[in-house]
Specification:
The chain has 684 residues and is an alpha+beta fold. The protein is built from 17 helices and 25 strands. Strand 19 and strand 20 form a beta hairpin.
C-alpha cells in the first residue's frame, strides 16, 4: 500500500526476489563522494519576509542523538538539497533513519525582533526538529511507537532564540524516519519534498495561508464531486428505506457514501494517524469498488444469474478482507513484523485482490454476450464502467514494483489531461466522474420507470379490488332456519378465493366456494368468469354436480395452465344437503370431515365427472366450508396447521372469523376463506 495514494498494491510476488535484493542493497548506503566545504547559510537583513532554506544541507543515513548538537562535526557528511527527496538524489529506495543539518546565521533587519518561525513542508514520514540541540517541534512519533501523519499540511514551528537584538546563529538539525516501502511505492521517496521557509511569524503565517488557499482552490472539483456523492447517497438511502425491495438503491447508497468517507479521512488533510487513515480509506475503497459490481448486476439486469451473483459475492469478500488485512499490516510494523515480513504480507494480499479489479469488465462482457435488451442509459453505464475498470486495473497493475520495473504507464494514466481553474483532472478521475453521472442518470430512469409501473400496478389492484367486492359478498343474505358467518383474509391485496350464495327454486339455497390458482387481476378475472358461469347455470339446474361440470367446460383452455378447486352445496330449508366437490378440501360437519370420492379440479379435463353426496344437518349442527389457506397455514418453525388442529378447531363450533383468525395467528401463508352454516333449533 503506497503511502502517497490509497490504491491497492499489486503484483509484488512476481518481483519478490528482485525487491529483496534491491532492499538489501538500499539498506547499505552507497559510498559518498567527498563532502564539499560546509557553507553557513547567511540571512542578512531578515525582516518581515520569508526566505527558503535552499542550497546544500549536510546529510547522513542512520541515527545518533549526538547529531543534534551544534558542536558536532558534520564536515564529512554528504550534501543534499531540500527541494527533493533523498530517494530522488543519491539514496533511492532507502528506508529508516537519516539526519539533515544546516548551519544558519540570521542578521535581523534594524528594529526587527529576532523571533523567527519555520514553515516545514511534508517530510516523508516522521521528523523531529532541533535548533542548537533543543527539540523545538516534531510531527508523529519515532519507532518503536511509530505514528505517522502523511496527509498533514505544512507545519509552523517557532525557533524562539530568546535574544532581543543582534545576529542569531545556530544549527538546524532534522531527524527523519522513513517507513517501509509498499509494493506500489516508487524509489524516489524519503525526507524533504520541498524547501522549508524561515521568516517572521507573520510572514510564515501568510506563506502558509497562501499555500492553503492554493491547495483549497486545487480541490474545488473534488469537493464539489464528493458533495454530489453525499447528496445522492442521502437521497438513495431515503428512497431505499421507503422500499426495501429496491436493491439498486441500496447499492447506489453504498457507492455514493464511500467517497465522502474517503474525503473526510484522507482528503481534508486532517491530523489522523496514518494507521487509522489507511485502514479506513483502503477498506472503504474496496467497499466502493465492490458496491459498483452489485450496482452493475442490477442495472445490466443480470442479477437473476445465481452463479454470477455468487461469484461477485465471493470476489467482494476476498477483496474487502484482503484490503483491510493489507492495510492493517502497517500497524504491525515495526512492533510485530520486520520490514521484509511486511513486504511479504503486502505482496500476498495484493495478489489476492488484484485479479478481481476486472470484475466490472467481466460483468459488462457477460451482459453483452447475453444480448441483454437495455435502454441507452444502461448501455452508457456499461461502456464507461468497462473503460473505467480496465484503466483502473492497468494503473494498479503497472504501478506494482515500479521502483524495480520503472514502468511509466501509471504515470501517464495519472498525468493531468486538463486543468480547470487550478484543478488537475486525469483520465481516471474523468472516467470515474462520468461513470458516477451515468449511473445517477440510469438510476433516475430506473426509479421513474419503477414508479410508473407501480402506479399501473396499483391501478390494476384497485380494479381487481372493485371486481372482488362483487365476487366475495361483504353482506351475507338471510337464510331462514340457519345462521351464516363468513371471513375472507387474502394473503395479498387481491387473492383467488371466492364464494357465492344464490337462492334457487323451492326455497333452496346454492352455495359455491372455491379457490383459483394465482393472484392479482388475472385470478380475479378467472373468478369473475366462474361466478358468471354459476349464475348462468343456476337458471337451468340446481344440481351441484351439473353446475361444477358446466363451470369445468367453460374453463377449459381459459386459465393459461392454471386451475380452480370448488365445492357446490344445495341447502334445503329442512336441513337436507346435496354437495359436490372439484378437488376442494372436504368440509366439516361439527368435528367430522365429510368423505368425498376423488375428483379433478376445474379447467383440467373437459370430460371430468363430479359426484354428489347427500346428508342432513340436524338442529345445532354446523357445516364449515373453507379454502386450503386455512389448512396450509404455516408457523415460523415451518409446521403446517394440519388436519389435527383443524379437527380440534371445528369441534369448538367457531364462527368463520374465529376460525380464520386462528390460522392467521398460527402463520398465514395463503388466502383464507371460511364459511359456516349452523342450523337453528325449531323454536329459535
Amino acid at each position: 500500500m503506497a503511502s502517497q495514494g490509497w490504491r491497492f498494491p499489486c503484483l509484488q510476488l512476481l518481483v519478490l526476489f528482485a525487491a529483496a535484493s534491491a532492499m538489501a542493497s538500499a539498506a547499505v548506503p552507497a559510498p559518498s563522494a567527498p563532502a564539499a566545504p560546509i557553507r553557513t547559510l547567511l540571512l542578512d537583513g531578515l525582516g518581515k519576509d520569508a526566505v527558503p532554506l535552499d542550497g546544500p544541507w549536510q546529510f547522513h543515513l542512520g541515527d545518533n542523538p549526538a547529531w543534534a548538537a551544534p558542536s558536532f562535526d558534520d564536515s564529512q557528511w554528504e550534501q543534499l538539497t531540500a527541494d527533493k527527496t533523498w530517494g530522488a538524489q543519491t539514496h533511492p529506495s532507502y528506508t529508516g533513519f537519516a539526519w539533515y543539518r544546516r548551519a544558519i546565521t540570521i542578521t535581523p533587519a534594524p528594529g526587527v525582533k529576532p523571533d523567527f518561525s519555520l514553515l516545514i513542508p511534508h517530510i516523508d514520514d516522521v521528523y523531529e526538529i532541533y535548533w542548537n540541540g533543543k527539540l523545538v517541534g516534531q510531527l508523529g512519533s519515532m519507532p518503536p511507537h511509530l505514528v505517522e501523519y502523511v496527509t498533514a499540511p505544512w507545519q509552523i514551528y517557532s525557533l524562539n532564540p530568546g535574544q532581543q537584538a543582534g545576529p542569531v546563529s545556530g544549527v538546524l538539525a532534522i531527524r527523519v524516519f522513513k517507513g517501509p516501502l509498499a509494493s506500489n511505492d516508487p524509489a524516489d521517496l524519503g525526507g524533504f519534498e520541498a524547501l522549508p521557509l524561515l521568516g517572521s511569524p507573520a510572514a510564515i503565517a501568510a506563506a502558509k495561508g497562501s499555500r492553503d488557499f492554493r491547495w483549497l482552490r486545487s480541490q474545488q472539483f473534488l469537493f464539489g464531486l464528493t458533495s454530489l456523492y453525499a447528496l445522492v447517497a442521502l437521497l438513495s438511502f431515503i428512497a431505499w428505506v421507503r422500499d426495501r425491495s429496491q436493491w439498486l438503491l441500496f447499492w447506489m447508497t453504498i457507492l455514493a457514501f464511500c467517497p465522502a468517507v474517503d474525503l473526510l479521512t484522507t482528503g481534508m488533510r486532517q491530523m489522523y494517524p496514518f494507521n487509522f487513515q489507511i485502514v479506513v480509506a483502503q477498506t472503504f475503497i474496496e467497499i466502493r469498488e465492490t458496491s459498483q459490481w452489485f450496482l452493475l448486476l442490477w442495472l445490466l439486469q443480470i442479477h437473476e444469474y445465481r452463479k454470477l451473483v455468487r461469484f461477485a459475492r465471493i470476489a467482494a469478500t476476498i477483496s474487502i478482507v484482503s484490503g483491510a488485512l493489507d492495510s492493517l499490516s502497517f500497524s504491525f510494523f515495526p512492533n510485530l513484523i520486520s520490514e521484509f515480513q511486511f513486504q511479504i504480507v503486502d505482496a500476498f494480499f495484493t495478489c489476492c485482490a488484484l485479479p478481481f479489479e476486472v470484475v466490472p469488465a467481466i460483468l459488462v462482457t457477460f451482459a453483452i454476450l447475453r444480448h441483454k435488451r437495455l435502454d441507452s442509459s444502461r448501455w452508457l453505464v456499461a461502456i464507461i464502467a468497462f473503460l473505467n475498470a480496465t484503466t483502473y486495473w492497468l494503473e494498479n497493475l503497472f504501478v506494482q514494483g515500479v521502483r524495480i520495473t520503472h514502468f511509466t504507464i501509471n504515470e501517464r494514466i495519472n498525468a493531468p489531461l486538463i486543468t480547470i481553474n487550478g484543478n488537475a483532472l486525469n483520465i481516471l478521475l474523468i472516467l470515474r466522474t462520468l461513470l458516477f453521472l451515468s449511473i445517477v442518470y440510469a438510476v433516475i430512469r430506473y426509479v421513474v420507470d419503477t414508479q410508473r409501473r407501480q402506479t399501473s400496478l396499483e391501478q390494476e389492484f384497485q380494479n381487481a379490488r372493485e371486481l372482488q367486492q362483487v365476487l366475495v359478498p361483504e353482506t351475507l343474505p338471510t337464510l331462514a332456519g340457519f345462521t351464516l358467518t363468513s371471513a375472507y383474509r387474502p394473503a395479498q391485496e387481491v387473492g383467488g378465493d371466492f364464494f357465492q350464495i344464490i337462492p334457487v327454486e323451492n326455497g333452496s339455497t346454492l352455495v359455491v366456494l372455491g379457490d383459483v390458482s394465482g393472484k392479482g387481476l388475472k385470478a380475479a378475472m378467472a373468478v369473475s368468469m366462474i361466478v358468471g358461469a354459476v349464475r348462468t347455470l343456476v337458471e337451468n339446474t340446481s344440481s351441484p354436480a351439473e353446475i361444477l361440470a358446466g363451470i369445468n367446460r367453460r374453463l377449459i383452455g381459459r386459465l393459461q395452465g392454471g386451475f380452480a378447486t370448488a365445492i357446490a352445496l344445495r341447502l334445503d330449508g329442512n336441513g337436507a344437503c346435496t354437495i359436490a366437490s372439484a378437488g376442494h378440501p372436504a368440509p366439516y360437519v361439527n368435528d367430522q370431515e365429510l368423505t368425498f370420492p376423488g375428483a379433478l379440479p376445474l379447467g383440467v379435463m373437459p370430460t371430468a365427472v363430479f359426484e354428489e353426496l347427500r346428508f342432513n344437518l340436524g338442529e345445532r349442527d354446523q357445516l364449515a366450508l373453507y379454502t386450503d389457506g386455512l389448512l396450509e397455514a404455516r408457523s415460523q418453525s415451518g409446521d403446517l396447521y394440519s388436519f389435527g388442529r383443524l379437527k380440534t378447531l371445528f369441534a369448538t363450533r367457531p364462527t368463520a372469523e374465529q376460525a380464520a383468525q386462528a390460522a392467521v395467528n398460527f402463520g398465514q401463508d395463503d388466502d383464507i376463506t371460511v364459511l359456516t352454516l349452523t342450523r337453528m333449533t325449531a323454536n329459535a
